[in-house]
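User: Design a sequence. Structure:
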């Protein structure tokens, strides 16, 4: 599986207010089951991953979610910007798992007409030893029956 330029958002639950620029308050959520002895739970977002040294003492880790929003979130993002990014979701390109042979042959794996295809692109400076038979036929100008997919 391949994740296209995804960004992580870490969700934390805390039993006391946090004064840390990494933490963005989430006024609408709080996992009450995170702390059995507290009725007021504060929820925070952290853009990206969080180091253990940055985790405040009164907080617990809840979860990490991914987003592939076209607008990257900054560390000082607003709650509404995070909400938009989460609503966007994330993109998962499953077809990359089918591209092992193509990658090994220095091809470009693409989805075309709902089929996974391996394209080999050659340029004037591509050594002849790296070209396929089909590209040689095109190089010398012989007629080829069918589609040429190597150019």
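Assistant: Done.
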């Amino acid at each position: 599986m391949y994740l296209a330029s995804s960004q992580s958002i870490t969700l934390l639950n805390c039993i006391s207010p946090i004064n840390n620029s990494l933490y963005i308050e989430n006024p609408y959520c709080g996992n009450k089951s995170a702390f059995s002895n507290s009725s007021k739970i504060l929820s925070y977002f952290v853009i990206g991953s969080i180091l253990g040294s940055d985790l405040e003492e009164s907080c617990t880790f809840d979860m990490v979610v991914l987003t592939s929003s076209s607008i990257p979130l900054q560390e000082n993002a607003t709650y509404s910007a995070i909400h938009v990014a989460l609503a966007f979701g994330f993109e998962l390109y499953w077809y990359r798992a089918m591209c092992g042979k193509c990658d090994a042959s220095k091809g470009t794996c693409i989805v075309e007409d709902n089929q996974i295809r391996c394209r080999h692109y050659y340029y004037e400076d591509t050594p002849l030893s790296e070209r396929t038979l089909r590209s040689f036929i095109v190089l010398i100008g012989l007629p080829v029956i069918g589609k040429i997919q190597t150019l």
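The helical segments are 79-88, 100-104, 133-140. The first strand starts at residue 2 and ends at 3.
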